[in-house]
Structure to design on (602 residues):
């Protein structure tokens, strides 16, 4: 791009600024809302007329009116998303290894199934589960969400990992086998270290998907015993009946968004390659 | 979680030793299924079982509020649903949202992909990071962000900013009518999911042979001609996959609608109708019928795309 004229350069900078504004605007918007006072909420202005931490105190500080709603849901979200990510990535690692490496019938069936599951309408799954979970006691529990979350995290993990595993130099594994290692030892000692970055990226993507869930969260829980953050946000109410929960919801939204943005900033290159490799073989 | 590991270890002793050809391939196949089986079975359990159960439940007059009146009623739930204008209304809204979001996202996503493809390295990094932000954000959070920016009852400032546009006044209530509600719902959906489509298109762009583009330019083709004659035809597969994936995803839209309008003013989508029927009103039989119909719609879209437009998902998403 050395031969770019000044005009072209300005053009690219303008385009970049437009993309930045478009991508970040809603986030900045809700960030500003989270710093508004109750009176400031109704100013109809983008920037808070008066800045306050009050909304963060409402959801985080002891005695805050939305604290019992928010903190347990944050714990639920982190725990449930982490467990379903770990389970999915472990299972998908074995599955994708077999697909990328071994010769057996049914590979295409497994990949097609994963594809079909990933486009399955979640609402069609939730009605029967709602009924079943209530009768077997899984309603409003962590396992009651972890199990259906696997329908979200497993397919994408299998696809992404299979794509990653196809690019690993497998001669190393053969070398290990020649040296007398069993296939499983070769897998563990020679392949796992090489595959780790792909597994890690897959875990991030799977975690995002679990963290984003709303339909299961709102349908299969009823108390803060298992209700994850997105579902909890829709249950916020104001400190009194005359107060809107807008500020508290905005503050909670920022608390769950900031870690994601940081992860995106740190691992953006990997996430992009994971997303595109899993989707279109490049 | 221990299942796959122990299964693999159990398989190891028989697979580790050197064998004759056919034995070896048989043991390899066995190891393959030991490793891949658990994931496969779980995928089936968490989707196939529920949809079969929904199919079964949809044949009963099953209501959690009156369990002892449950009766087998054949297809009467489907009759009720298909005879209800609310179903057709929500189907229409869902189709409308799907078509508009996918069309707009395809154009926006393509522009973004071109920007990332052509931009200098530093700018590309910035753009790529920026567009990953909407991807990573929880849909519910994005729904609230858009809702608060527009809703006058939550101090929305959009009216103040754009009051110079015809039709926008200071007291315009976006969520009081169907058209304006749909506009905000669709805008937030587009914002959230364009990054994904643009990344798919970007990897499609990378597969367009550079020499072809170069040769067309040398022959004096304009930018538009290169785009239409060289770039787009070579990206057809990537575009079709992106469109199908997004269409199937957009068809299940739920989160933003629930948060912004909860279906008010004729903005109820199919997923929300199913949710409100089965989990809201506990009419499991009717709700299951809607769930099954929603599933059928998704099947039909996928079938038309795969058979009609020859989208080879498995082929494009990785060979087997």
């Amino acid at each position: 791009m050395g031969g770019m004229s000044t005009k072209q350069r300005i053009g690219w900078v303008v385009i970049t600024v437009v993309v930045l504004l478009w991508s970040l605007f809603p986030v900045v918007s809700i960030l500003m809302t989270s710093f508004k006072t109750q009176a400031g909420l109704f100013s109809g202005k983008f920037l808070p007329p008066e800045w306050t931490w009050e909304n963060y105190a409402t959801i985080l500080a002891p005695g805050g009116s939305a604290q019992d709603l928010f903190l347990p849901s944050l714990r639920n979200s982190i725990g449930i998303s982490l467990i379903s990510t770990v389970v999915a990535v472990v299972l998908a690692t074995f599955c994708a290894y077999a697909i990328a490496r071994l010769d057996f019938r049914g590979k295409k069936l497994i990949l097609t199934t994963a594809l079909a599951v990933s486009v399955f309408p979640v609402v069609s799954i939730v009605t029967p589960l709602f009924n079943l979970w209530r009768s077997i006691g899984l309603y409003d529990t962590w396992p009651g969400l972890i199990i259906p979350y696997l329908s979200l995290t497993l397919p994408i993990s299998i696809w992404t990992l299979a794509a990653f595993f196809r690019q690993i130099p497998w001669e190393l594994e053969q070398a290990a086998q020649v040296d007398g290692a069993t296939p499983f030892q070769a897998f563990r000692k020679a392949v796992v270290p090489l595959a780790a970055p792909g597994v890690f990226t897959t875990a991030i993507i799977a975690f995002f998907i679990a963290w984003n869930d709303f339909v299961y969260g709102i349908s299969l829980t009823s108390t803060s015993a298992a209700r994850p953050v997105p579902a909890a946000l829709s249950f916020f109410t104001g400190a009194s009946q005359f107060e809107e929960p807008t500020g508290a919801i905005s503050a909670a939204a920022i608390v769950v968004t900031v870690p994601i943005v940081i992860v995106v900033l740190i691992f953006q290159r990997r996430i992009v390659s994971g997303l595109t490799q899993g989707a279109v073989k490049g | 979680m221990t299942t796959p590991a122990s299964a693999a270890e159990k398989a190891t002793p028989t697979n580790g030793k050197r064998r004759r050809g056919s034995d070896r391939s048989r043991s390899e196949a066995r190891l393959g299924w030991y490793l891949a089986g658990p994931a496969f079975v779980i995928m089936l359990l968490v989707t196939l079982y529920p949809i079969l159960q929904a199919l079964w439940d949809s044949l009963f007059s099953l209501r959690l509020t009156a369990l002892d009146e449950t009766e087998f009623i054949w297809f009467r739930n489907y009759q009720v649903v298909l005879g209800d204008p609310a179903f057709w209304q929500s189907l229409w809204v869902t189709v409308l949202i799907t078509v508009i979001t996918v069309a707009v996202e395809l154009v926006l996503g393509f522009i973004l992909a071109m920007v990332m493809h052509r931009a200098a390295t530093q700018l590309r990094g910035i753009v790529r990071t920026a567009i990953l932000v909407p991807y990573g954000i929880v849909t519910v959070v994005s729904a609230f962000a858009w809702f608060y920016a527009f809703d006058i009852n939550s101090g929305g400032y959009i009216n103040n900013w754009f009051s110079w546009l015809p039709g926008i006044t200071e007291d315009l209530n976006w969520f009081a009518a169907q058209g304006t509600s749909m506009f905000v719902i669709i805008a937030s959906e587009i914002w959230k999911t364009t990054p994904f489509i643009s990344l798919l298109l970007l990897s499609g762009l990378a597969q367009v042979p550079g020499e072809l583009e170069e040769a067309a330019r040398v022959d004096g083709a304009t930018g538009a001609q290169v785009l239409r004659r060289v770039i787009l035809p070579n990206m057809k597969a990537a575009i079709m996959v992106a469109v199908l994936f997004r269409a199937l995803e957009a068809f299940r839209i739920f989160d933003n609608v629930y948060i912004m309008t909860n279906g008010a003013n004729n903005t109820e989508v199919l997923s929300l109708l199913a949710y409100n029927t089965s989990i809201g009103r506990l009419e499991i039989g009717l709700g299951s019928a809607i769930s099954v119909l929603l599933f059928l719609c998704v099947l039909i879209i996928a079938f038309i795309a795969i058979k009609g437009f020859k989208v080879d998902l498995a082929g494009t998403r990785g060979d087997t």
Q: What stands out?
A: DSSP finds 15 helices and no strands in chain B. Chain B touches chain A through 116 residues (CB under 8 Å).
